[in-house]
Amino acid sequence: MLNHAKNTTVEVAAFELKKNGETRYYILPWNDNDRTTSRFTTNLNKYGLDGYNEINIMQLYHTHPGSNMPGPTDREWSNNSLIPIWAICPNGKSYIYSPIENTTNAIELKNFLNF
Half-sphere exposure of residue 82, counting CA atoms within 13 Å on the CB side? Predict the structure, then answer.
């Protein structure tokens, strides 16, 4: 994801999915995204992920190619969905917003989220 944040001109998003103790990552299509917006749905059947639904989404990761900070829509989406959201920025920093704790924390990325 850090590679996408540095080298892709549009936002790229991925879901962390958990089911039956197994964790999977699904990178969402980004052909309709732009520099500041990821367009996606939590209806996982749309992506051919049969057997998964919104309760299987543990976290959302997305890049911020045009910004080194999370935006207000990140917090709004996370509060509405109750799903933690990561903003991965091209400067190597990542921010996680937790709707349960109502906190945003910065994390320095090294080899983290290397997918």
Answer: 4
